[in-house]
């Protein structure tokens, strides 16, 4: 397992722990904004894992396919995969200082 895979697995395990905790607090009738905050944290972990997997795919499979002359095929595959990810095609977030945030998170 390489570093990227390990990082994805760690994020997924953390998300799993968060989900188990969310289930518990919902069952105990937690305050709705507290549940929503925890759900947002899990979504962030999953989005981060997805970005890492995309990076890994680009650095490995896409590079190999392009070297083999399968550019159109790999581009079609990526477009098909990414069309379901609303975060990939959203406008970039802007930091308070006007800088673009490459991770799509708001700082400030």
TrEMBL record:
Keywords, alphabetical: Cytoplasm
Any matching Pfam family: Trns_repr_metal
Region spans: Disordered: 89-108
InterPro entries for this protein: Metal_Tscrpt_repr
DNA-binding recorded as keyword: no
Annotated compartments: Cytoplasm
CDD domains in the record: TthCsoR-like_DUF156
Name of the protein in its database record: Metal-sensitive transcriptional regulator
């Amino acid at each position: 397992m390489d570093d990227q895979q390990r990082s994805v697995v760690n994020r997924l395990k953390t998300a799993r722990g968060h989900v188990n905790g969310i289930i518990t607090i919902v069952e105990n009738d937690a305050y709705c904004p507290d549940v929503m905050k925890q759900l947002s944290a899990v979504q962030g972990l999953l989005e981060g894992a997805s970005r890492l997997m995309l990076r890994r795919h680009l650095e490995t499979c896409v590079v190999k396919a392009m070297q083999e002359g399968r550019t159109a095929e790999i581009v079609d595959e990526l477009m098909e995969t990414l069309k379901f990810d609303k975060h990939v095609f959203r406008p970039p977030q802007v930091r308070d200082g006007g800088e673009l945030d490459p991770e799509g998170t708001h700082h400030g």
